[in-house]
Amino acid sequence: MLLELKDIKKSFGSKQVLSGVSFRAEGGKAFGLLGRNGAGKTTSIRILMNVFPADGGEVLLDGRPINYRRMKIGYLPEERGLYPKKIIADQLVYFAELKGMSHREAVKAVDHWLERLGMMEYRNKRLDTLSKGNQQKIQLVTALAHNPDIIILDEPFSGLDPVNAMLLKEVVREQIAENKVVLFSSHQMSYIEEFCDSIAILNSGQVVLSGELHDIKRSYVRDRLIVRTEYPDNIQADFGKDCTVMGDGSLMIRLACAEDKKSVMQRLVDNYDVDGVKVFEPSLNDIFVEYAGDGADKEDVR
Amino acid sequence: MKQFGKILKFELKYYFKNKVFVGVTIFLVLLIAVVMFLPRIVGMIKDDGEGTDSSPSERSVMLIKAETPREEEAVRKAFQAAFPDYDVQITQESLSAMKERITKEEAECAFVLEGMTSYTYYVDNLSMHDSNMEAADSVLKSMIQTGAMVEAGITAEQAGEIMSVQITNDAVSLGKDQMQNYWYTYIMIFALYMVILLYGQMIATNVATEKSSRAMELLITSAKPVSMMFGKVIASCLAGMVQLIAVFGSAILFYGMNQEQWNDNPIVASIFDMPVGLLGYMLIFFVLGFFIYAFLYGAIGSTASKLEDINTSVMPVTMLFIIAFMVVMFSLASGDVDNTLMKVCSYIPFTSSMAMFTRIAMSTIAWYEIVISIAILAGSVVGIGVLSAKIYRVGVLLYGTTPKIGSIIRSVWKA
Q1: pLDDT at position B399, please?
Q2: What is the per-residue pLDDT across B304-318, written as a single tens digit (0 to 9) for each?
Q3: Which residues pair with B123 in a beta bridge?
Q4: Which candidate, B359, B369, B364, places its Cα nearest to that of B185?
Q5: β-strand B119-123 against A224-229: which pairing, if any?
Q6: What span, in angstroms and rounded, lies between the C-alpha atoms of B134 and B148?
Q7: Per-residue model confidence (pLDDT) at position A298
Q8: Is residue B233 within 8 Å of residue B298, measured between CB atoms?
Q9: What is the pLDDT of residues A179-230, one digit of tens each?
Q10: Cα gap A118→B352, rounded to integer Å
Q11: Between chains, do B3 and A98 touch, taking CB under 8 Å as contact?
């Protein structure tokens, strides 16, 4: 299953929100849609979900325009919200029914997910009696109960404690293993890095970077080494201004060219008491700041 | 369609599980029961008492002071006959003493006669509905006329017969009898007004709550706006009708149980003597009128960002509806329901549900006028329903400040 957004354009009034957004997300893999607030993520997601039509471009599934009648989409919106005064099971069943399930199927699916997320005891309680984290788990049921083919999770980890975050990770991995398209949108780069094979970074309504995360990282010139050592002074004295101390106490050595990598690594291991040497790869956070930060200008990045 | 059914069911459940809705309905039914059983209850209490005739000591005192003492007894007798609820007493007290007795509530009122053709009436507080003076006028008139006839040689019996001649009359209305139709038309228009205002507000609040609790984020991605709008409006219409049927049904039922006790009350009897055909028109105009306003309220609810904004946002629609109600009510009270304004209002969809219904009930309307009015109303319901669903779809996604009408229209046009 391959989900593609091709050259999507959208404006509200005179404001152009999306100007030619394209990306592709594959089944069985997680895709990360990144961008700062107001970059156009939610608008892209809404167009993808057919909440409103795009002014231009198309949404394709396996090369053909997506059939919203057949294709089921699960959505966990960033702005969480259900009916606070209503019984949890009632509203979960209602949402599953709206997505096309029969009443019997919906009840069964809701009970399955409440059980899976350890929320069965709250089944017949009102939503507003639950803690924020538990409300979030209830919200997750609305995204998954109808067994969707495409799952869109907008900031799924915000507000979850580490134990619940782990539970959510397990659930997401299961969904990915079922060959579903899982689309993440988040500002928490560590989670994206952990889950997503490919990403797209949106800035001002345009995709400024997209592709396999591994390839993106690889594409950076490998001309920096990270050295972990208990005795940094000698190395610093040896490498002079090419050596800088990182935030975590390790050293970064800038090489004259990438080809020197092997010989310098050898030199470090032979001459100094080092705990580890590796080639520097930018984190997703670094990449994001580079492409979507205030100083980012897509014309001259890299 | 399947989705619409689910939404309808869910929304209906909202009403029927709502404690306030159930409570108010039960309260109204109980209230109707109390009112309808009142004459029976009052009758039972009276029967338990010592009889219906109250003794002179229990009756209010009416003082009479005549200038010529020889007339006093005749006047007292005539007044006592005309005012059976009073204990009529002759007095020779001074005016100030009489006034004092009235203010001390020892006597309720006093007639001070200056001859037979003039008097002054004294009472503590002159009530709006005080008809004592009219009654006293006719007593004195009849005494003078009888006296004159006796003087002219007619016997007292003959004079009595002449004075008590009874005219019988009967009115045959070839169209509608406004006197008979007035009360049930009034009640139905009022019911329509209350239900539309209450349920309209409820729909607007319901939509705004979904939006402010962000449940809308999920709803809008799960269901079509048209299904959601129609589901909500039809559910509230059904809930409103259930409430009306409960109230009117229990009224008819309890009236049937107490019909004998109510028979001497022409207003109540006329209300329950309503033609069945009119109920059919009531149903048509209720449903269509309800839909028009409910759609508007729903659309407005979707544009409000916060629940607090609802009251100000719905003001224009509420005002429009109140104006329509006032026009109809004033025309109804004046008796001229076929005035130009009412005729125009009968074809404007926002007013026709009340105006046309009133004219059908109170006047004679050609069938084609009714058909045209209903056709315009039904067409507008569809048009406004679709337009409202479009506003809804745009409105529910607009957060922040409440958008201006112009920007909504532009967005709807584009959508």
Answers
A1: 65
A2: 878 888 888 889 899
A3: B109
A4: B359
A5: unpaired
A6: 21
A7: 44
A8: yes
A9: 999 999 988 888 888 888 899 999 888 998 888 888 888 888 788 889 998 8
A10: 56
A11: yes
A9 pLDDT exceeds 90? Answer: yes
Task: Report whether A172 contacts A30 (CB < 8 A).
Answer: yes
What strands lie across the sheet with B109-113, from one edge to the other? B86-90, B60-65, B109-113, B119-123
Instruction: Give the residue from B261, B259, B287 showing the smallest Cα distance to B273.
Output: B259
Burial (0-12, 13-18, 19+ Cβ within 10 Å), A42: buried
- Dihedral angle computed from the Cα positions of residues B9, B10, B12 and B13, in that order, rounded to the nearest 10 degrees: 110
Low-confidence stretches of chain B (pLDDT < 70) are 48-57, 175, 399-405, 407-408, 410-415
Tell me the three-class secondary structure of A15-71, residue by residue.
Answer: EEEEEEEEEEEECCCEEEEEECCCCCHHHHHHHHCCCCCCCEEEEEECCEECCCCCC
Q: Is B407 on the interface with A (CB under 8 A)?
A: yes
Q: Smallest Cα–Cα separation from B66: which of B102, B35, B90, B101?
A: B90
pLDDT at B225 (0 to 100): 84
pLDDT for residue A216: 86
A14, A50, A94, A138: best mutation site toward chain B, by most B Cβ within 10 Å? A94
Q: What is the model's pLDDT at position A301? A: 40
Tell me, yes or no, if B217 comes closer than 8 A to chain A by beta carbon: yes
- SS3 category, B305: coil
Chain B residues whose beta carbon lies within 8 Å of the beta carbon of residue A77:
214, 217-218, 221
A286: pLDDT strictly greater than 90: no
pLDDT at position B10, please?
92
Token output for B192: 């329509």
Instruction: Indicate yes or no: CB of B13 within 8 angstroms of CB of A90.
Output: yes
Check residue B48 and give its pLDDT. Answer: 64
DSSP codes of every residue in B194-258? HHHHHHHHHHHHHHHHHHHTTHHHHHHHHS-HHHHHHHHHHHHHHHHHHHHHHHHHHHHHHHHHT
The pLDDT of residue B56 is: 59
What is the DSSP secondary structure assignment for residue B154, as one 8-state letter? -
CB atoms within 10 A of CB B236: 26
Structure tokens at B11: 């929304």
Amino acid making up residue B225: P
The H or E element that residue B86 is part of is: strand B86-90
Q: Which residue has the tokens 């990770």?
A: A169
Most A CBs within 10 Å: which of B18, B221, B411, as the mutation test of the A interface?
B221
pLDDT in tens, A164-184: 999 999 999 999 999 999 999
* Amino acid at site B80: Q
Nearest in space to A176 (alpha carbons), one of A294, A14, A1, A39 = A1
What per-residue confidence (pLDDT) applies to A302? 39
- What residues contact B297, with CB distance under 8 A and at least 6 apart? B200, B201, B203, B204, B314, B317
Please answer whether residues B329 and B341 qualify as being in contact, where contact means their C-beta atoms are separated by less than 8 angstroms: no
CA nearest neighbour of A151 among A76, A218, A81? A76
Instruction: Please say whether the beta carbons of A184 and A153 come within 8 A.
Output: yes
Interface of A with B in 80-119 (CB under 8 A): 80-84, 90, 94-95, 97-100
Residues with Cβ within 8 Å of B366's Cβ and at least 6 positions away in sequence, in order, are none
Shortest alpha-carbon distance between residue B380 and chain A (Å): 26
Report which of B298, B292, B261, B308 is spatially closest to residue B381, judged by C-alpha positions.
B292
Q: CA-CA distances (angstroms) from residue B26 to B19, B20, B31, B103? A: 10, 10, 9, 45
